[in-house]
C-alpha cells in the first residue's frame, strides 16, 4: 500500500489566535514495501507528518493518499477506521498506553475491537509474544508487573496484532539501553523483511536511518527539503549541516580517515560492519605493498 502526501500543509489551531503553521507544501511518496526514514531537527515537523500517515491529522491544504483512500481536510471520510487498521503507529513510549489486566488481553484488545474472533485474536497474541522474544508465562501476568523493556514489547505486539500493512515507528527505542535499542530495531527490520510491511521510522538517530532505511526524507522548518537513498542523503554533508543534522558516526570516521589518507574510499560506509570491511581491505593492501 503506497502512501503519498501531495502538497500537504497543516496548521494547528487554524483560524484561532493560536494558529501555528507546521507543514508547508510537503510532497512525499512512500512506496509499498519500502523502509522510509523521516529525519529532522527538533520541531521540524516529523510528528506532524507522522500523524497524517493514518489520518489522525487531516491536511489543512493538499491531499494524503493511503492506498486507495484519499484524505483531505474538509472532506468527510467513512473509511478512516479501515485506515487506522491498515496503518499501525508505535508512538514514543507505547507502554504508557497499556491498560488491560493481562498481557494476553491487552494484545487481543485491538483485533477484537475490530471484530476479529476471539480464537484468532488469541492465536495472534500467542504468536506475537513468541516473535517479540517474551517468555510464554508473561501472557497471564499484568503488563504492569513487567520490566520496562518487556512492557515496550507487549505494546508493540498490540500494534502488530492488528496485522497492519504499514508500520509507523516514532522513536520506538526512546529510553531503552543500547542493547535493548538494537534488539528492537533489528526485530522491526526482520518483520519488515519477512512480512513485507512498509515501515516508516521517525528518528533523531542518523545511525538507525543509515542502517535500516532504504529511503530517507529530511524535514526542516515544516518542509520536506531532501529525499533520497541513505547514500545520496549522507553524501551531502553541507546540506545536512544547513538542516542542523550530523553525519552518522561511521561516515564521520570515514571522512576523517579519508582526510588523512588524501583520497576517498570507493563506497560510503553506513554501518560499522561495512566500515570494518573497508578498513580490513586498506590494511591488507598496506601489508601487501610493504612486502
Ligand atoms: N499541538 C500543537 N499545537 C501547536 N503547535 C504544535 C503542536 N504540535 C506541534 N506544534 C508545532 O509544530 C511544529 C512542528 O512540530 P513537530 O512536533 O511536528 O516537530 P518534530 O520534528 O516532530 O519535533 P521533535 O523532534 O521535537 O519531536 C513545531 O513548531 C511545534 O512547536
UniProtKB/TrEMBL annotation:
PROSITE patterns the record matches: ABC_TRANSPORTER_1 (PS00211), ABC_TRANSPORTER_2 (PS50893)
SUPFAM superfamilies: P-loop containing nucleoside triphosphate hydrolases
Topological type in the membrane: Peripheral membrane protein
CDD domains in the record: ABC_cobalt_CbiO_domain1 (cd03225)
Keyword flag Phosphoprotein: no
Signal peptide: none
Location(s), subcellular: Cell membrane
Domain ABC transporter: 3-246
Gene3D superfamilies, alphabetized: P-loop containing nucleotide triphosphate hydrolases (3.40.50.300)
Its job: ATP-binding (A) component of a common energy-coupling factor (ECF) ABC-transporter complex.
Subunit structure: Forms a stable energy-coupling factor (ECF) transporter complex composed of 2 membrane-embedded substrate-binding proteins (S component), 2 ATP-binding proteins (A component) and 2 transmembrane proteins (T component).
Family label: Belongs to the ABC transporter superfamily. Energy-coupling factor EcfA family.
Name of the featured protein: Energy-coupling factor transporter ATP-binding protein EcfA2
Annotated source species: Psychrobacillus faecigallinarum
Amino acid at each position: 500500500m503506497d502512501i503519498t502526501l501531495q502538497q500537504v500543509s497543516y496548521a494547528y489551531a487554524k483560524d484561532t489566535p493560536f494558529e501555528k503553521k507546521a507543514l508547508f507544501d510537503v510532497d512525499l511518496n512512500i512506496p509499498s514495501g519500502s523502509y522510509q526514514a523521516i529525519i529532522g531537527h527538533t520541531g521540524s515537523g516529523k510528528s506532524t507528518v507522522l500523524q497524517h500517515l493514518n489520518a489522525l491529522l487531516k491536511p489543512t491544504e493538499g491531499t494524503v493518499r493511503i492506498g486507495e483512500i484519499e484524505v483531505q481536510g474538509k472532506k468527510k471520510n467513512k473509511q478512516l477506521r479501515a485506515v487506522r487498521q491498515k496503518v499501525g503507529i508505535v508512538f514514543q513510549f507505547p507502554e504508557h498506553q497499556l491498560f488491560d489486566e493481562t498481557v494476553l488481553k491487552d494484545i487481543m484488545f485491538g483485533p477484537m475491537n475490530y471484530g476479529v474472533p476471539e480464537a484468532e485474536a488469541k492465536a495472534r497474541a500467542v504468536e506475537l509474544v513468541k516473535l517479540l522474544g517474551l517468555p510464554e508465562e508473561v501472557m497471564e501476568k499484568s503488563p504492569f508487573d513487567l520490566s520496562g523493556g518487556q512492557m515496550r514489547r507487549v505494546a508493540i505486539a498490540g500494534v502488530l496484532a492488528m496485522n497492519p500493512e504499514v508500520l509507523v515507528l516514532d522513536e520506538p527505542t526512546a529510553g531503552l539501553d543500547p542493547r535493548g535499542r538494537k534488539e528492537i530495531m533489528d526485530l522491526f527490520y526482520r518483520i519488515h523483511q519477512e512480512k513485507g510491511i512498509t515501515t516508516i521510522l521517525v528518528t533523531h538517530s542518523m545511525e538507525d536511518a543509515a542502517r535500516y532505511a532504504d529511503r530517507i526524507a529530511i524535514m526542516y522548518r515544516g518542509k520536506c527539503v531532501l529525499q533520497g537513498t541513505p547514500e545520496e542523503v549522507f553524501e551531502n554533508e553541507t546540506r545536512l549541516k544547513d538542516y542542523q543534522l550530523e553525519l552518522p558516526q561511521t561516515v564521520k570516521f570515514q571522512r576523517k580517515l579519508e582526510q588523512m589518507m588524501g583520497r576517498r574510499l570507493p563506497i560510503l560506509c553506513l554501518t560499522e560492519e561495512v566500515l570494518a570491511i573497508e578498513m580490513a581491505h586498506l590494511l591488507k593492501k598496506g601489508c601487501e605493498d610493504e612486502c
